[in-house]
Design brief:
The chain is α+β, with helices and mostly antiparallel strands. The chain folds into two domains: 30 residues; 91 residues, Immunoglobulin-like. Helices cover 17% and strands 37% of the residues. The strands form two sheets. A four-stranded antiparallel beta sheet has the order 1-2-7-6, with no helix packed on it. The protein has a three-stranded antiparallel beta sheet with strand order 3-4-5, with no helix packed on it. Strand 6 and strand 7 form a beta hairpin.
């Protein structure tokens, strides 16, 4: 097959779609082990750096802000919490459940340095952290 062959292009596109599906699955759902202790999903994160300041945005729709834990160590930033499903199990029939629920944990590596958390805010389902690097 040549690179102009439509079958080659379709195969490459199919492989890319499978890779994308696998990345999404790893990002949002991690099963196995102790359900309470193991992280079940990873939220998407943006990290922006400007001089000695780093801003981190974490998409956490539906996560209660006072249940979020942020820890800075030599390996970077560790953000944990859990998102409870909006059902009670006794009277709710689940027809579709695509939004990730359960305990999450996200480790965000940071460039070398010592960091201080200057500000933490949760607004419109997004956790925003402002860090100073010393």
């Amino acid at each position: 097959m040549s690179s102009r062959d439509p079958r080659s292009w379709m195969w490459a596109e199919a492989c890319e779609l499978l890779d994308q599906a696998e990345r999404l699955h790893r990002q949002f759902f991690r099963f196995g082990g102790n359900a309470e202790a193991e992280p079940r999903w990873e939220p998407p994160v943006d990290v922006l750096e400007s001089g000695a300041e780093t801003r981190v945005a974490v998409a956490l729709p539906g996560v209660v802000p006072d249940r979020i834990t942020v820890h800075i160590d030599t390996n970077g930033l560790l953000i944990t919490a859990d998102r409870r499903p909006p059902v009670d199990g006794r009277t709710t029939a689940i027809r579709r459940l695509e939004i990730p629920y359960g305990r999450f944990e996200r480790r965000v590596p940071l460039p070398a340095g010592r960091y201080e958390l200057l500000e933490q805010a949760c607004e419109n389902g997004c956790l925003t952290l402002r860090l100073a690097r010393h």
